[in-house]
UniProtKB/TrEMBL annotation:
Similarity annotation: Belongs to the cation transport ATPase (P-type) (TC 3.A.3) family. Type IIB subfamily.
Main location: membrane
Protein's cellular compartments: Membrane
Protein name, as recorded: Calcium-transporting ATPase
Catalytic reaction(s) noted: Ca(2+)(in) + ATP + H2O = Ca(2+)(out) + ADP + phosphate + H(+)
Annotated Cation-transporting P-type ATPase N-terminal domain residues: 110-184
EC number: 7.2.2.10
InterPro entries, A to Z: ATPase_P-typ_cation-transptr_C, ATPase_P-typ_cation-transptr_N, ATPase_P-typ_cyto_dom_N, ATPase_P-typ_P_site, ATPase_P-typ_TM_dom_sf, ATPase_P-typ_transduc_dom_A_sf, ATPase_P-type_domA, HAD-like_sf
Amino acid sequence: MSSSGDHSPITCGKLLYEITRAQKRWRMAYRAIYFVRVMLSLPKHVNVIVSETNIYKNYTEALLSHPNYPSSTTSHHEISKTSNDIVVPVLDHNVLTEMVKEKNLVALRQLGGVGGIATSLGTDPENGIPENAQDVDRRRQVFGSNTYVKPPPKGLFYFVVDALKDTTILILLICAALSLGFGIKEHGGKEGWYEGGSIFIAVLLVIVGSALSNFRQETQFDKLSKISDNIKIDVIRGGRRQEISIFDIVVGDVVLLNIGDQIPADGLFLTGHSLLIDESSMTGESDHIEIDSSDHPFLFSGSKVADGCGKMLVTSVGMNTAWGEMMSSITRDTNERTPLQARLDKLTSSIGKVGLTVASLVLVVMLVRYFTGNTEDEKGNKEYIRGETDLDDVMNAVVRIVAAAVTIVVVAIPEGLPLAVTLTLAYSMKRMMADQAMVRKLSACETMGSATIICTDKTGTLTLNQMKVTKFVLGQEQIDEEDYSNSISTNVRELFYQGVGLNTTGSVYKPDPQSSNSQLEFSGSPTEKAILSWAVLNLRMDIEKLKHEYEILHVETFNSDKKRSGVMLKKKILDSVKVYVHWKGAAEMVLAMCSSYYESNGTTKSLDEEMKKKMGNIIEGMAASSLRCIAFAQCQVSEAEIEYIDDQDKTHRRLKEYDLTLLGIVGLKDPCRPGVKKAVEACKSAGVAIKMITGDNVFTAKAIAAECGILEAAMGNDVNEGEVIEGVEFRNYTHEDRMKKIDNIRVMARSSPFDKLLMVQCLKQRGHVVAVTGDGTNDAPALKEADIGLSMGIQGTEVAKESSDIVILDDNFTSVATVLRWGRCVYNNIQKFIQFQLTVNVAALVINFIAAVSAGEVPLTARPSDELMKRQPVGRTEPLITNIMWRNLLAQSCYQIAILLILQFNGESMFNISQKVNNTLIFNTFVLCQVFNEFNARSMEKKNVFKGIHKNKLFIVIIGFTLVLQVIMVEFLKKFADTTNLNWKQWLGCLATAAVTWPIGWCVKSIPVSDQPFLDYLRRVLLLKRITKIFHRTENSTSRLGIGCGKC
């Protein structure tokens, strides 16, 4: 041990490192105290004065190149000297991580506060870390990347085992094993394996097909989750605001936070205003946490910004965060059952019960026939003679009978349905991704096809969200662009600089004049960018000068309820007593707060009711030209006149909202997206109503709605009563009035998120299937309430995306219409498959049942089209199997049953052929009927089933492959399939018989069907029977009691 006089930092660190775990808290306290001492002694060690840029560079360089840079084994603090003798404290990252996780304010203060930690991490709170790829890479190597380790995805073997758990598969495997054993025993190994082996092969195909499909779905979900997790984050690096992937965040980054953002990593609060954080995803607490630099500076990855704005310093990323630890143990459930899949499971279960009942009857009948001596072998002898037949022969016969019964169950159950749905949904999800729609919930694929109403936003969805200031009104006059410098007085221009440059969430980056790209960069929302660029380029605003001259005292951030934002500020000079309050927001709302207005020469005039009306007309005129109107207003107060929300503590300032002076109004043009009108027309022709819900005023809303085709009247004039309303009007309706008028509403202006939620709830109560678009945090309740929530991928907040079912990646309404087409395509494809599959099952079940009872033996995806958008929406209660499907299905089944029964009972005598040839004819005709009926299944209503067939090459290939396989089965695999050769006449006869399904399909599609579901007729008949029985019982009981009419 060193002497007491030799206490170097290294020696102390080694001693501390050897201390037992029981003294961990004492060790942490020592580190904190020691670090504070180092920080306090830091100025004494700076011997060379260098420029600010060089200091910044050397701090980072010393921090990241130090040989003892903090790692998992470092447990003490050291001091590094650069070439300029600048001392840099090296902070133990483990201590920092635990301090943030435990919200340890005492440790934070002992470590020099947020500023001290920023210095130790080589971060400038204003300019961030250097914009240097090497610096970022070294930080990533030292502190880790912002990713977390996920559990390995389920492999193919998992899905194979899962498929083996199916009851039907297990029954088939047992039957296959029994069949294989008795077959080999009876016929030898060379030929005895055919029947059992073929069942094994069939089961293997089902298992492999199902497992591959589920495995592909799992892989696709994994890819989609990676895309959905790749959030874009705003950071400051090298003084420049830039957007990067959440995975590229490193320790030391300065991250900008706004309403709706997800916090990308653990960190500390630097600066901000009214920042409220939703930590419910981490703690389960629904109350929002107010963040400040003194009492609550800790920010956690995975939390959401509920209100306000701010900057944070990243202290931990990836697996070092609490969110990373939690997410690494969570696997995404991809076994979601969609409503359609659930309905198909129910349908399959019902058909299975029918099949089981029929199979049980067949089993009983065939066993009775066998044991009563009514069955004969191939030589014409009785198969069973009591007391004479060997036990082995009896067992073989029983197994054969049981196998026949099981075959009926297998034939009855359409096992391909669930697989077909999974394949269709997986294919649709993949194609929808290419069409700019990312499906987050599998059920949305099919539910969208049933949508009857789409409630859409305006900005960014129907419009391009590319704002530009095209009109500027000051007082009562419009100021032309070329007159900005001459027409506006200096004091008014200075107030505009304050109201635009300091009351904003946007930013302006001015690059180095010597760099190759010296153009100004504007960041923020489209509205903020448009106003900032207008002020900088047209009004000659210097935003850096503004920030140095003024101090911001309080900020009220913009949200959808207030529709305005405000700021309180004052000049930084010591003798300044003036405090400025600025408001910016919806023109008519800001106008209502004003009592005077500025003219261009700098004079102020009273804003009486008559003048307010004139100003209102100016706003209406601008709005009618599809301009978004933003007004600016201000007032000046003394420090003594500042209002507070809490009068006693005086900690929360309140901005003055009355007696303001109107500065001016700007009109921003946001053109409609190309193709949006066509997409709206396509939705309307498909029977889907479009409702536009926007925060803009009623005149702008009407103009845009007319331009997009939502309103029929030109420019929104002469609209029908009740088609255009404001949110407050809708909100104040009684429930009965809302339910009466809601179907007629086309546009709702000046709406709040609550109004949107209320509309969705009312529409659902009216029986509509509702799709809703949204991009803001406050849209989350409406997105969750809707049947299909559609969030915007570009402008949408993370809260909105997490609440939605589908993310529209390009924010375009045309993509919403495409999603509608895909939804209908999924539903239509499934219906076509059901029609085809049930035709096969019904025909096979009836044939096998009749043949077994009478003779004791058993013989036997498209892309969306424009036509889908011409149909009416399916809605919420429509049956899966429609009357059209019943019509087609029953007609084809009846034809096939009739033909196959004729061959079964009269084929041998009619064509003078052997029983084996007749059985082959039955098998061949049945298969070919299904092949030809596939053409009919291409369309449930079109008579011409060959239209466009040359475009579907996959369909032609499958039909060709099936025919070739059938020829091979009949002609070459005779022993395996138990068939015999057919001559060319018999082949032609089979083909001709099967081809009759085409004219039958053509004729049947000419028969009109009722809109009332087919099964409703059966329910009515059963209901009438019940009523009749009740009536008769009542009549009999009254007769017995002697209350008949004749005895009165």
